[in-house]
Write a sequence for this structure.
């Protein structure tokens, strides 16, 4: 799977090195084991405390509120600090088991997790929490869930690079290629390659195990903890299902619009946007109406997020994406963009366009000139413009879902900007609001179809 990253989100400050960063020590820790989001030991915070409150824990409560305000100011950096402390401990434990294991796998997993990326999923958790009224009492849990999402993203990326045969990730050697390069001089080239791929599979498994451990250790009231576990379990299965559909489409050369969107929904919309929003809402104890509105907004924008990534793979600048252009085309991935182009080419009897797509998709050795021909077809058939318009409609519908819920105004604004940025849109490019949407509807001008239908398209591949 190639889980995607929004291009316009704020990049966090340089994360601490997990090999040198250590959890805070030498400070008294209260009996309940809590720490503030900034790492200071504290008692259970009361969000109603304010300066001047005449009670013994007033100072601690004010400190907690101040710490939450600091997280509001830079969520990626706050999650990065939690990751730095958590991974330092994990790397140390791995090295104690075996130094080679610690160096070759644990350190690489930690490095992949703390370096690069925009912490998009963890930002969705935090701002959903804040939008639903959560604050100091849930801050630590939200940051830890955010850290767990960064780890499961590492699992997905590492495994994805092996399945796609991608040597680069974020402009650097992918983990499997890095391990291969490390041992290239010691064993045969084929053995080094196979060893690198096997090591990457284990590294992804390790990241997933650490993510699960992090979620399991989150302290929350029983009802909240149960909801958190259920959402997390569901999200993991959806992510794997989406990836399998992606691989199945490649293997069978399936270019069905319905299957393309189904895969995009499972592997990206749910995992990248909707479920992180749901996790934040659950931590805040949000009611059903607010949770449903956030999830509907997340699914609409999440599908737009994947469609934007499909466009970026073909038309994006490798200097920004961190990998060569055309990876999906060369891998033969059944993207919505390509399915629309093929459908329109067949409908208009454009034999040249159909031939270019048929001969180019799935060709690992496709040249740059060949990729340029594919780009021409995607534009000439109108597929690129149609997908761009679809993205705008989906995001507009997502904003209507967001506006239909009773949310904290400042956090709603932050969520709005984050959702728009994740789909590569700006407020001026979004269509004008229309009446409140039907709960669970996604698609706006496509008739407000139920989420189970996801997106509509005629048999000719034209977006309706």
């Amino acid at each position: 799977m190639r889980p995607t990253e929004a291009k316009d989100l704020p990049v966090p400050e340089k994360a601490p090195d997990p090999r040198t960063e250590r959890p805070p020590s030498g400070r008294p820790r209260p009996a309940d084991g809590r720490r503030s989001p900034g790492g200071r030991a504290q008692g259970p915070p009361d969000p109603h405390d304010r300066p001047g409150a005449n009670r013994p824990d007033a100072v601690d409560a004010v400190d907690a509120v101040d710490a939450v305000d600091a997280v509001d100011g830079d969520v990626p950096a706050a999650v990065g600090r939690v990751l730095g402390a958590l991974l330092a401990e994990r790397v140390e434990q791995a090295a104690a088991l075996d130094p080679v294991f610690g160096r070759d796998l644990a350190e690489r997993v930690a490095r992949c997790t703390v370096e690069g990326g925009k912490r998009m999923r963890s930002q969705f958790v935090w701002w959903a929490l804040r939008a639903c009224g959560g604050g100091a009492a849930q801050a630590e849990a939200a940051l830890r869930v955010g850290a767990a999402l960064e780890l499961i993203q590492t699992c997905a990326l590492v495994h994805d690079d092996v399945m796609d045969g991608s040597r680069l990730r974020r402009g650097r050697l992918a983990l499997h290629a890095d391990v291969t390069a490390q041992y290239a001089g010691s064993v045969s080239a084929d053995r080094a390659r196979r060893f690198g791929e096997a090591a990457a599979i284990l590294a992804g498994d390790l990241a997933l195990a650490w993510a699960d451990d992090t979620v399991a250790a989150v302290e929350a009231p029983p009802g909240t903890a149960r909801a958190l576990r259920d959402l997390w379990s569901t999200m993991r299965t959806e992510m794997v299902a989406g990836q399998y559909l992606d691989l199945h489409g490649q293997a069978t050369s399936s270019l069905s619009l319905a299957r393309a969107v189904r895969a995009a929904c499972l592997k990206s919309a749910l995992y990248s946007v909707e479920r992180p929003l749901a996790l934040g809402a659950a931590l805040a104890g949000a009611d059903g109406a607010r949770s449903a509105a956030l999830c509907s907004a997340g699914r609409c924008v999440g599908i737009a997020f994947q469609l934007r990534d499909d466009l970026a793979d073909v038309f994006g600048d490798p200097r920004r994406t961190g990998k060569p252009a055309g990876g999906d085309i060369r891998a033969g991935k059944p993207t919505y963009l390509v399915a629309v182009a093929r459908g329109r080419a067949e409908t208009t009897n454009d034999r040249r366009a159909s031939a270019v797509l048929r001969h180019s998709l799935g060709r690992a050795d496709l040249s740059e000139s060949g990729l340029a021909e594919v780009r021409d077809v995607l534009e000439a058939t109108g597929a690129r413009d149609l997908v761009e318009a679809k993205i705008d409609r989906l995001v507009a519908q997502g904003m209507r879902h967001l506006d239909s819920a009773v949310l904290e105004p400042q956090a709603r604004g932050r969520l709005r900007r984050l959702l728009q940025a994740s789909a590569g849109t700006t407020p001026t490019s979004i269509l004008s609001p229309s009446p409140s949407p039907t709960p669970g509807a996604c698609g706006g001008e496509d008739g407000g179809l139920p989420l189970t239908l996801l997106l509509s398209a005629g048999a000719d591949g034209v977006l309706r």
Q: What stands out?
A: The two ends are 28 Å apart (CA to CA). The beta strands are 168-169, 172-173.
